[in-house]
Design goal:
Length: 467
């Protein structure tokens, strides 16, 4: 069912309207069919009532009977006179037709003490000689009726109506009349009506839906690709409500761009104002005579400088002026591996096939450096491998450390939260490495995934779009 349900607003609207129209047309067709059935019964009973009234009138005036076998005699049939009603108790009674027949007889001045009407699929053999309407096809094949456009083939017989009326002397007079099926013209009319309704309703709705959805699609695409200060204002189009939404989005984008520009100015000032006294402080620390104390103070200054650099990089992410370019991931990984190997860390990478990705090399190198740094810090060694899944490149960094409890894996990406509880940079870092790495990956349309390995240790995966 989910596959049949469209995802777009226009598709859902059209499908819903189409289903409602189909339901309404089905109900309408059912009511018309029932009405046609009732009409057929009324027509059949009207002929039967007229035949009874005509026969009784002819009997009362003592008219000579028409010669046997004549067309009119075959058409009208013969009335059946009997002591018992032709409509027995086990037959399907039609109270509405009985009421109509009684009213018709009263209007014609003919009174009966009781009137019975019944519908039967098959005709009782006792009524075979008392039937009207059965020879309609032969009558319509006559030359006069053919010349006037009469149908050559009548509608099929689907049953019989029997009208039985009891006279004042207790004798019953009965006649049967054929009930014809529905006309093929009605079916064609319903089909044509359904097609016309669908065309008249769905085509304007489709055009209206496109008029409404087109600016919404543009708004969605613009929101997904929104870059503060770079994304142009979206043209206002569509109905008034959609125009108001686009206008509000443009205003929000302008406010966001202004706020980020102000933030960049503030961060630049903070970075300058903090780095200047840090540089001066380091110069003074160089004059400290105690070598141990001097190294500690220098390390503290470097901690502050690195943390400040991480904070500024994280805050400015997404505002980089560097353009994404196709980069050979093998060369990028080897550069990072050489850096850590030169520092005495164990980092293994088996060079494989050439893999390219459209990235900003400086930022991706930094994200990879943070992940490898965590692996060597907590797992003592790092094994790097690359997996290509078609539209994604996955760089796996495996370590043999203690791993991370499953319940806290996602929280490790929060700023200043680390697996090591100490605040010593040698064991815990600044707590921004994973946060910055994920921010860089997501800025490229990828992500960072942490997963404990079955054999022990942790796997950190840097996911990037393949170039």
């Amino acid at each position: 069912m989910k596959r049949l349900w469209p995802r777009s607003l226009v598709g859902q609207l059209l499908l819903l309207v189409a289903l409602m129209l189909l339901l309404a047309q089905a109900i309408n067709s059912f009511l018309l069919y029932r009405g046609a059935q009732t009409q057929n019964l009324v027509e059949a009973s009207t002929g039967a009532v007229a035949r009874i009234a005509f026969g009784l009138e002819r009997q009362a005036s003592d008219r000579p009977a028409r010669r046997a076998g004549s067309m009119r005699a075959r058409r009208w049939g013969q009335l059946k006179y009997s002591a018992e009603s032709a409509v027995t108790d086990d037959m399907q009674r039609l109270p509405e037709l009985e009421s109509r027949a009684g009213q018709a007889f009263a209007n014609m001045g003919t009174g009966f003490s009781e009137i019975r009407a019944s519908f039967n699929r098959d005709l009782d053999p006792a009524m075979a000689g008392h039937l009207i309407g059965a020879n309609r096809g032969e009558w319509r094949k006559g030359p006069i009726n053919r010349s006037m456009g009469g149908r050559l083939e009548p509608r099929a017989i689907r049953g019989y109506v029997i009208i039985s009326a009891r006279q004042a002397d207790g004798q019953w007079v009965s006649i049967a009349s054929t009930v014809r099926g529905r006309s093929p013209l009605m079916v064609r009319t319903l089909l044509l009506q359904t097609v016309m309704i669908y065309l008249l309703m769905l085509i304007p709705l489709f055009l209206l839906g496109r008029y409404v959805s087109r600016p919404l699609k543009s708004l969605t695409a613009t929101a997904l690709d929104f870059r503060p200060g770079e994304t142009p204002a979206l043209p206002e189009q569509g109905p008034p409500d959609t125009r108001d939404l686009i206008r509000a989005f443009n205003a929000m984008g302008a406010r966001v761009s202004t706020m980020i520009s102000e933030k960049d100015v503030m961060l630049g000032a903070i970075g300058h104002d903090l780095r200047t006294p840090l540089a001066a402080l380091r110069v003074r620390v160089e004059n400290v005579e105690d070598a141990t104390e001097r190294e500690r103070m220098i390390a503290g200054i470097e901690d502050i400088d690195h943390m400040l650099d991480d904070i500024l990089s994280l805050a400015r992410l997404g505002r980089s002026q560097d353009q994404a370019e196709p980069v050979d991931i093998r060369s990028l990984i080897e550069t990072v591996v050489d850096e850590f190997t030169d520092l005495g860390h164990i980092v293994r990478y088996q060079r494989g096939d050439k893999q390219r990705a459209l990235v900003r090399e400086t930022l991706v190198r930094r994200a990879l450096r943070n992940l490898v740094g965590n692996a060597t810090l907590y797992g003592k060694a790092a094994d790097i491998s690359v997996e290509n899944s078609g539209d994604r490149l996955m760089i796996h960094i495996d370590d043999s450390g203690p791993g991370i409890p499953e319940a806290t894996i996602e929280s490790m990406f929060e700023p200043f939260l680390r697996g090591e509880a100490s605040r010593n940079r040698a064991t815990g870092g600044s707590g921004l490495g994973l946060t910055l790495a994920r921010a860089i990956a997501r800025d490229h349309g990828g992500d960072i995934i942490l997963k404990n390995r079955a054999g022990g240790g942790l796997r950190a995966t840097l996911v990037l779009p393949a170039g």
